[in-house]
Protein backbone atom coordinates (compact mmCIF):
# COMPACT_ATOMS: atom_id res chain seq x y z
CA UNK A 1 0.00 0.00 0.00
CA UNK A 2 1.46 3.31 -1.03
CA UNK A 3 1.39 5.85 1.73
CA UNK A 4 0.14 9.31 0.96
CA UNK A 5 2.85 10.89 3.08
CA UNK A 6 5.78 9.50 1.11
CA UNK A 7 7.60 11.88 -1.22
CA UNK A 8 8.59 8.98 -3.48
CA UNK A 9 6.72 8.36 -6.68
CA UNK A 10 5.47 4.85 -7.52
CA UNK A 11 8.13 4.61 -10.26
CA UNK A 12 10.81 5.61 -7.78
CA UNK A 13 9.64 2.93 -5.40
CA UNK A 14 9.82 0.23 -8.05
CA UNK A 15 13.28 1.36 -9.15
CA UNK A 16 14.27 1.15 -5.50
CA UNK A 17 12.91 -2.40 -5.62
CA UNK A 18 9.79 -1.53 -3.61
CA UNK A 19 8.50 -3.15 -0.45
CA UNK A 20 9.20 -6.70 -1.67
CA UNK A 21 12.87 -5.77 -2.30
CA UNK A 22 12.87 -7.60 -5.61
CA UNK A 23 11.42 -5.04 -8.01
CA UNK A 24 9.47 -6.42 -10.93
CA UNK A 25 11.59 -9.58 -11.19
CA UNK A 26 8.78 -11.87 -10.03
CA UNK A 27 6.25 -10.35 -12.43
CA UNK A 28 8.62 -10.43 -15.39
CA UNK A 29 9.81 -14.02 -14.82
CA UNK A 30 6.16 -15.11 -14.61
CA UNK A 31 5.60 -13.50 -18.04
CA UNK A 32 8.77 -14.96 -19.62
CA UNK A 33 7.99 -18.50 -18.43
CA UNK A 34 4.35 -17.96 -19.46
CA UNK A 35 5.36 -17.16 -23.05
CA UNK A 36 7.73 -20.14 -23.07
CA UNK A 37 5.04 -22.41 -21.64
CA UNK A 38 2.62 -21.65 -24.49
CA UNK A 39 5.12 -23.07 -26.99
CA UNK A 40 6.41 -25.85 -24.72
CA UNK A 41 2.89 -26.99 -23.68
CA UNK A 42 1.91 -27.43 -27.33
CA UNK A 43 5.13 -29.41 -27.91
CA UNK A 44 4.42 -31.51 -24.80
CA UNK A 45 0.89 -32.30 -26.00
CA UNK A 46 2.26 -33.39 -29.41
CA UNK A 47 4.83 -35.67 -27.73
CA UNK A 48 2.28 -37.29 -25.41
CA UNK A 49 -0.20 -37.83 -28.26
CA UNK A 50 2.55 -39.39 -30.42
CA UNK A 51 3.25 -41.91 -27.62
CA UNK A 52 -0.32 -43.23 -27.43
CA UNK A 53 -0.40 -46.94 -28.23
CA UNK A 54 3.36 -47.22 -28.61
CA UNK A 55 5.12 -50.11 -26.82
CA UNK A 56 7.80 -49.34 -24.25
CA UNK A 57 10.76 -49.55 -26.62
CA UNK A 58 9.27 -47.16 -29.16
CA UNK A 59 8.17 -44.75 -26.41
CA UNK A 60 11.69 -44.66 -24.97
CA UNK A 61 13.12 -44.13 -28.44
CA UNK A 62 10.84 -41.11 -28.92
CA UNK A 63 11.55 -39.63 -25.48
CA UNK A 64 15.32 -40.02 -25.93
CA UNK A 65 15.32 -38.25 -29.29
CA UNK A 66 17.43 -35.12 -28.56
CA UNK A 67 14.86 -32.62 -29.86
CA UNK A 68 12.04 -34.27 -27.90
CA UNK A 69 14.16 -34.65 -24.75
CA UNK A 70 15.31 -31.01 -24.84
CA UNK A 71 11.75 -29.74 -25.38
CA UNK A 72 10.49 -31.94 -22.51
CA UNK A 73 13.29 -30.74 -20.21
CA UNK A 74 12.55 -27.10 -21.01
CA UNK A 75 8.83 -27.79 -20.44
CA UNK A 76 9.31 -29.24 -16.93
CA UNK A 77 11.84 -26.56 -15.88
CA UNK A 78 9.85 -23.60 -17.25
CA UNK A 79 6.66 -25.13 -15.85
CA UNK A 80 8.17 -25.62 -12.39
CA UNK A 81 9.44 -22.02 -12.25
CA UNK A 82 6.09 -20.66 -13.50
CA UNK A 83 3.98 -22.69 -11.06
CA UNK A 84 6.22 -21.76 -8.12
CA UNK A 85 5.73 -18.04 -8.85
CA UNK A 86 1.98 -18.46 -9.34
CA UNK A 87 1.47 -20.44 -6.14
CA UNK A 88 3.59 -17.93 -4.21
CA UNK A 89 1.19 -15.14 -5.20
CA UNK A 90 -1.79 -17.24 -4.12
CA UNK A 91 -0.16 -17.98 -0.75
CA UNK A 92 0.67 -14.30 -0.23
CA UNK A 93 -2.90 -13.34 -1.14
CA UNK A 94 -4.70 -15.73 1.18
CA UNK A 95 -2.40 -16.51 4.11
CA UNK A 96 -2.05 -13.55 6.44
CA UNK A 97 -0.22 -15.14 9.39
CA UNK A 98 3.41 -14.19 8.80
CA UNK A 99 4.98 -17.41 10.13
CA UNK A 100 2.64 -19.76 8.29
CA UNK A 101 3.03 -17.68 5.14
CA UNK A 102 6.82 -17.99 5.19
CA UNK A 103 6.57 -21.76 5.79
CA UNK A 104 4.05 -22.12 2.95
CA UNK A 105 6.19 -20.10 0.53
CA UNK A 106 9.17 -22.24 1.50
CA UNK A 107 7.21 -25.50 1.07
CA UNK A 108 6.06 -24.20 -2.31
CA UNK A 109 9.68 -23.73 -3.39
CA UNK A 110 10.59 -27.22 -2.16
CA UNK A 111 7.66 -28.76 -4.05
CA UNK A 112 8.45 -26.98 -7.31
CA UNK A 113 12.13 -27.93 -7.15
CA UNK A 114 11.36 -31.54 -6.16
CA UNK A 115 8.87 -32.06 -8.99
CA UNK A 116 11.10 -30.28 -11.50
CA UNK A 117 14.15 -32.29 -10.43
CA UNK A 118 12.23 -35.59 -10.49
CA UNK A 119 10.96 -34.94 -14.02
CA UNK A 120 14.39 -33.77 -15.21
CA UNK A 121 16.14 -36.80 -13.70
CA UNK A 122 13.64 -39.20 -15.25
CA UNK A 123 14.04 -37.56 -18.66
CA UNK A 124 17.84 -37.69 -18.45
CA UNK A 125 17.75 -41.33 -17.35
CA UNK A 126 15.47 -42.18 -20.27
CA UNK A 127 17.87 -40.43 -22.64
CA UNK A 128 21.16 -41.71 -21.28
CA UNK A 129 19.94 -45.16 -20.17
CA UNK A 130 21.36 -47.02 -17.22
CA UNK B 1 9.34 10.05 8.81
CA UNK B 2 5.63 10.74 8.88
CA UNK B 3 3.35 7.86 9.81
CA UNK B 4 1.39 6.49 6.89
CA UNK B 5 -2.17 6.21 8.17
CA UNK B 6 -4.81 5.48 5.53
CA UNK B 7 -7.70 7.91 5.51
CA UNK B 8 -10.95 6.64 7.05
CA UNK B 9 -12.73 5.66 3.86
CA UNK B 10 -15.62 3.21 3.58
CA UNK B 11 -14.50 -0.38 3.03
CA UNK B 12 -15.49 -2.10 -0.17
CA UNK B 13 -18.22 -4.70 0.37
CA UNK B 14 -17.31 -8.36 0.51
CA UNK B 15 -16.93 -10.29 -2.71
CA UNK B 16 -20.23 -12.17 -2.31
CA UNK B 17 -22.16 -8.91 -2.62
CA UNK B 18 -21.31 -8.60 -6.31
CA UNK B 19 -23.22 -10.20 -9.16
CA UNK B 20 -21.02 -12.74 -10.92
CA UNK B 21 -19.55 -11.48 -14.16
CA UNK B 22 -17.59 -13.21 -16.91
CA UNK B 23 -14.38 -11.46 -15.95
CA UNK B 24 -14.73 -12.46 -12.29
CA UNK B 25 -15.35 -16.07 -13.27
CA UNK B 26 -12.44 -16.10 -15.74
CA UNK B 27 -10.15 -14.55 -13.15
CA UNK B 28 -10.83 -17.14 -10.45
CA UNK B 29 -10.88 -19.91 -13.09
CA UNK B 30 -7.37 -18.91 -14.15
CA UNK B 31 -6.24 -19.19 -10.55
CA UNK B 32 -8.10 -22.47 -9.94
CA UNK B 33 -6.74 -24.06 -13.12
CA UNK B 34 -3.26 -22.92 -12.09
CA UNK B 35 -3.64 -24.70 -8.74
CA UNK B 36 -4.95 -27.84 -10.46
CA UNK B 37 -2.00 -27.85 -12.87
CA UNK B 38 0.33 -27.40 -9.90
CA UNK B 39 -0.95 -30.69 -8.48
CA UNK B 40 -1.14 -32.21 -11.96
CA UNK B 41 2.63 -31.97 -12.40
CA UNK B 42 2.79 -34.90 -9.95
CA UNK B 43 1.07 -37.03 -12.62
CA UNK B 44 3.64 -35.96 -15.24
CA UNK B 45 6.46 -36.73 -12.79
CA UNK B 46 5.00 -40.17 -11.97
CA UNK B 47 4.56 -40.96 -15.66
CA UNK B 48 8.15 -39.94 -16.51
CA UNK B 49 9.52 -41.86 -13.50
CA UNK B 50 7.56 -44.93 -14.64
CA UNK B 51 9.07 -44.59 -18.14
CA UNK B 52 12.54 -44.24 -16.59
CA UNK B 53 11.97 -47.27 -14.32
CA UNK B 54 11.47 -49.88 -17.05
CA UNK B 55 8.91 -51.71 -19.21
CA UNK B 56 6.75 -53.10 -16.39
CA UNK B 57 6.27 -49.72 -14.67
CA UNK B 58 5.64 -47.98 -18.00
CA UNK B 59 3.04 -50.56 -19.09
CA UNK B 60 1.27 -50.11 -15.74
CA UNK B 61 1.27 -46.32 -16.14
CA UNK B 62 -0.07 -46.59 -19.69
CA UNK B 63 -2.75 -49.06 -18.54
CA UNK B 64 -3.90 -46.62 -15.82
CA UNK B 65 -3.86 -43.71 -18.29
CA UNK B 66 -5.89 -45.74 -20.79
CA UNK B 67 -8.55 -46.89 -18.31
CA UNK B 68 -11.93 -45.16 -18.21
CA UNK B 69 -11.02 -43.22 -15.06
CA UNK B 70 -7.57 -42.43 -16.46
CA UNK B 71 -9.06 -41.06 -19.66
CA UNK B 72 -11.57 -38.95 -17.72
CA UNK B 73 -8.77 -37.46 -15.63
CA UNK B 74 -6.63 -36.82 -18.72
CA UNK B 75 -9.59 -35.22 -20.54
CA UNK B 76 -10.09 -32.90 -17.57
CA UNK B 77 -6.34 -32.29 -17.41
CA UNK B 78 -6.32 -31.33 -21.11
CA UNK B 79 -9.15 -28.84 -20.63
CA UNK B 80 -7.61 -27.32 -17.50
CA UNK B 81 -4.21 -27.02 -19.21
CA UNK B 82 -5.63 -25.40 -22.34
CA UNK B 83 -7.95 -23.13 -20.33
CA UNK B 84 -4.97 -21.85 -18.34
CA UNK B 85 -2.92 -21.45 -21.53
CA UNK B 86 -5.65 -19.45 -23.31
CA UNK B 87 -6.23 -17.50 -20.09
CA UNK B 88 -2.53 -16.65 -20.16
CA UNK B 89 -2.90 -15.34 -23.74
CA UNK B 90 -5.75 -13.15 -22.45
CA UNK B 91 -3.38 -11.72 -19.85
CA UNK B 92 -0.74 -11.09 -22.53
CA UNK B 93 -3.30 -9.00 -24.44
CA UNK B 94 -3.71 -6.85 -21.32
CA UNK B 95 0.05 -6.80 -20.68
CA UNK B 96 0.45 -5.28 -24.15
CA UNK B 97 -2.03 -2.56 -23.20
CA UNK B 98 -5.10 -3.70 -25.16
CA UNK B 99 -8.56 -4.99 -24.32
CA UNK B 100 -9.42 -2.99 -21.23
CA UNK B 101 -12.80 -1.60 -22.23
CA UNK B 102 -15.81 -3.36 -20.62
CA UNK B 103 -17.14 -5.10 -23.74
CA UNK B 104 -13.71 -6.42 -24.78
CA UNK B 105 -13.02 -7.66 -21.24
CA UNK B 106 -16.25 -9.64 -21.22
CA UNK B 107 -15.62 -10.96 -24.73
CA UNK B 108 -12.08 -12.07 -23.88
CA UNK B 109 -13.42 -14.05 -20.92
CA UNK B 110 -16.03 -15.74 -23.14
CA UNK B 111 -13.50 -16.46 -25.91
CA UNK B 112 -11.25 -17.99 -23.25
CA UNK B 113 -13.89 -20.58 -22.34
CA UNK B 114 -14.97 -21.29 -25.92
CA UNK B 115 -11.42 -21.51 -27.32
CA UNK B 116 -10.20 -23.85 -24.59
CA UNK B 117 -13.28 -26.06 -25.04
CA UNK B 118 -12.81 -26.24 -28.81
CA UNK B 119 -9.07 -26.93 -28.47
CA UNK B 120 -9.74 -29.70 -25.93
CA UNK B 121 -12.21 -31.40 -28.27
CA UNK B 122 -9.76 -31.08 -31.19
CA UNK B 123 -6.94 -32.63 -29.14
CA UNK B 124 -9.19 -35.52 -28.09
CA UNK B 125 -10.44 -36.10 -31.63
CA UNK B 126 -6.77 -36.66 -32.51
CA UNK B 127 -6.25 -38.83 -29.41
CA UNK B 128 -9.29 -41.05 -30.03
CA UNK B 129 -8.59 -41.59 -33.73
CA UNK B 130 -5.07 -42.86 -33.07
What pair of chains forms the biggest interface? Answer: A-B, 35 and 35 residues
What is the CATH topology classification name of chain A? Answer: 3 helical TM bundles of succinate and fumarate reductases
Q: Structural class of the helix and strand makeup of chain A?
A: mainly alpha
Number of helices of chain B: 4
Give helix % range of chain A: over 70%
**CATH class label of chain A:** Mainly Alpha
Can you describe this structure in just a few lines?
The complex is a heterodimer of chains A (130) and B (130). Chain A is mostly helical.
Please characterize this protein's 3D structure.
The complex is a heterodimer of chains A (130) and B (130). Chain A is mainly α and 130 residues long. Chain A has a single domain, classed as Up-down Bundle (3 helical TM bundles of succinate and fumarate reductases). In chain A, 78% of the residues lie in helices and 0% in strands. The longest helix of chain A has 31 residues. Chain B is mainly alpha-helical. Chain B has a single domain, classed as 3 helical TM bundles of succinate and fumarate reductases (Up-down Bundle), CATH 1.20.1300. Helices cover 76% and strands 0% of the residues of chain B. The mean pLDDT of chain B is 93. At the A-B interface, helix 2, helix 3, helix 4 and helix 5 of A face helix 1, helix 2, helix 3 and helix 4 of B.
Can you tag this structure with a few keywords?
heterodimer; A: 130 residues; mainly alpha; 3 helical TM bundles of succinate and fumarate reductases; 5 helices; 78% helix; elongated; B: 130 residues; 4 helices; 0% strand
